[in-house]
Design brief:
Number of strands of chain A: 13
Radius of gyration of chain A: 20 Å
Shape of chain B: globular
Oligomer: heterodimer
Helix content of chain B: over 70%
Distance between the termini of chain B: 46 Å
Order of helices and strands of chain A: HEEEHEEHEHHHEHEHEEHHEEE
Largest sheet of chain B: none
Radius of gyration of chain B: 20 Å
Number of helices of chain A: 10
Largest sheet of chain A: 6 strands, mixed
Structural class of chain A: alpha/beta
Shape of chain A: globular
Chain lengths: 311, 289
């Protein structure tokens, strides 16, 4: 599996698919504004760019334009102004070239659809198949490997609705793996997922990052963002901040992004210290894993263990 | 024994049987998709909406398929337009538009009672179908069936997960248009065999029955097509003996099969669900719903 993702990436980007060989995954969003037909401005002049070997967290409240941004990258919504380029190509050309895989939010999936786990993973291979979508030996092997990678081999004959929340997520991750696209979009991958699956997903994403993939993860799970995202994009219709997690995922930026929406606990002064240390502990949470800051408002959040100490 | 073979001695019976079988198979193929998306009523709406087209076509002496298609298209555009321009729910829009078209059709027929027979539009008339009409029906079914056989996997992905369909380079919007084009074409064909009122059964029941019997889409299609073709052929055959309307017999057979599956299906049937609940107390998945 390790080398397979890269080699396949190399031959997929052949001149025949319109992608020059060796094109690195990237997402470029330039001055994108999306206005829906009812006049609602979902995104307002948003710009950022991401390059290979990145896990980027996309953070914002509900209705902040996260899903509109995803829809624009998937070509469902055309920006009213501005443009999106994927690996230097227009969105449609990039999708045709199988450059982007998509892991849907659980609530967007019809779990009663009559497909087995292995059928869903095989759908990831469709872009590699011919007109009639007949699976080759290679396709079957990739499906086997992807299932093995997410530890779902023993569930391959189950109908997808019979799985637990974490298992359901793994199926769609396996599909993205089997698809072998260098760019992966993940929509709320941690919602309804057990802690074990959450760490498995994070480990998988890190593994893909090490192999130069680009992942854009929309998430509510603020506490784990610093654990696995090296970049963050904070939006609320407008771009609030974008950049490396260490300098961007700060308390003041999060307060901008979430305003009064999150639960906010602050411990400081004599409640916390016996001396006159002015640093305070701040906990921001939307009832999933909280994010904990210690220090001044503009300090980045350090370390991964702090997040487990709730108030 | 010889009596059972009598229908095969009549040309019109043989024609009725194989034409019904072909239409039944095609409609059943489409039903597998339609019922999964919760669009079943759309099939009903379409069937009723094309009635004025068929009536008009007979009046003007043009191929009924052309008239039906035009009316169906007009209805679809009408529904889309009302939906876009108002905040009405989809079912209300469908209800308004299709009854409006159906009423217009009945009006057309009642003004010109000699040119068209209401009964043959509403109840179908496969036993008395003309060679021309039979040719249209067969052509529609054969083309639709071939397209479906070539594209069933693409349609499945587009219906299951639109975003993923895009990500493997498919165009889900185009596939949906293809699907609805086939659906309207087959509705027109089915109108000839079972009539406007029962078309809905042809494009829902076989798929719904197969859904209870399998968890794999490929098998579901095969089962659904087998049910659709089998009941249609048998229905046409039986209607010779019981002198009933062919459409009524076909749909009754489909309903009987559905009921059998509903109660007896090995995994998703009612009895299986009871058994599961009794043994484990934790019936999961579709069986529990």
């Amino acid at each position: 599996m390790t080398e397979s993702l890269e080699t396949a990436g190399a031959h997929r980007k052949s001149p025949a698919t319109g992608v020059p060989p060796g094109r690195a995954p990237s997402i470029g969003v330039r001055n994108v504004t999306v206005v829906y037909s009812n006049g609602h401005v979902a995104l307002d002049d948003v710009s950022f760019s991401l390059s290979a070997g990145t896990i980027c967290g996309l953070v914002g409240v509900n209705g902040s334009g996260k899903s509109t941004l995803f829809k624009s990258i998937m070509g469902f919504v055309r920006p009213t102004r501005g443009e999106i380029r994927i690996a230097g190509l227009p969105v449609d050309a990039a999708l045709k070239a199988n450059l982007v895989a998509y892991v849907p939010q659980s609530e967007d999936v019809d779990w009663n659809f009559p497909v087995l786990v292995e059928d869903v993973v095989m759908m990831g291979r469709y872009g590699h198949m011919g007109f009639l979508r007949i699976a080759s030996k290679e396709d079957r092997r990739r499906v086997d490997e992807a299932l093995e990678r997410v530890s779902m081999t023993s569930f391959r004959k189950r109908q997808i609705g019979e799985l637990s929340g974490g298992q359901k997520k793994r199926v769609f991750l396996a599909r993205a793996l089997a698809q072998q696209s260098p760019i992966i979009l993940l929509d709320e991958p941690f919602t309804g997922v057990d802690v074990k699956t959450e760490s498995a997903i994070i480990e998988l994403l890190r593994d893909l990052r090490a192999r130069n993939h680009l992942m854009l993860v929309s998430t509510h799970n603020l506490g784990s963002v610093p654990d696995f995202c090296d970049q963050v994009v904070l939006i609320n219709r407008k771009l609030l901040a974008a950049g490396p997690t260490a300098t961007t995922f700060t308390q003041s930026n999060l307060e901008k992004a979430f305003g009064g929406v999150l639960r906010h606990f602050k411990l400081g002064g004599s409640d916390l210290h016996a001396d006159d240390d002015r640093r305070a502990v701040t906990v921001l949470t939307d009832d999933e894993r909280p994010v904990v800051f210690y220090g001044d408002r503009n300090d980045p959040r350090r370390g991964t263990e702090e997040s487990k100490k709730g108030p | 024994m010889g009596e059972l073979l009598v229908p095969f001695e009549y040309n019109y019976m043989v024609k009725a049987m194989w034409v019904s079988g072909l239409v039944g198979a095609t409609c059943a193929f489409l039903s597998a998709y339609l019922m999964l998306k919760g669009w079943s009523l759309m099939g009903d709406a379409l069937a009723h909406s094309i009635v004025p087209g068929v009536a008009g076509a007979y009046l003007l002496q043009i191929p009924f398929a052309a008239g039906a298609f035009f009316a169906g298209l007009l209805a679809a555009v009408g529904m889309w337009f009302v939906r876009q321009q108002s905040k009405l729910r989809e079912d209300a829009v469908i209800g308004i538009v299709f009854t409006a078209f159906f009423a217009a059709g009945l009006l057309l027929v009642s003004i010109n009672p000699t040119a068209v027979n209401v009964q043959s539009i509403v109840l179908g008339n496969i036993l008395g179908i003309s060679d021309e009409d039979a040719f249209q029906v067969v052509a529609i079914s054969a083309i639709s069936l071939s397209v479906l056989l070539l594209k069933w996997k693409d349609l499945m992905v587009a219906f299951f997960d639109e975003a993923h369909a895009r990500s493997v380079g498919l165009n889900p919007a185009l596939l949906k248009i293809l699907f609805f084009t086939l659906l309207s074409a087959c509705t027109v064909a089915a109108l000839q065999t079972v009539g406007a009122c029962l078309v809905i059964a042809m494009v829902v029941t076989p798929g719904a029955t197969a859904y209870l019997l399998t968890d794999r889409f490929g098998k579901l299609l095969a089962l659904s097509v087998a049910i659709g073709a089998g009941t249609s052929i048998l229905g046409a055959y039986l209607s010779f003996f019981i002198d009933g309307a062919t459409g009524g017999v076909i749909v009754t057979l489909q309903t009987l099969l559905f009921l059998a599956a509903f109660f007896l299906a090995p995994k998703h049937g009612m009895l299986a669900a009871r058994r599961q609940a009794a043994t484990s107390g934790d019936a999961t998945g579709k069986a529990a719903q």
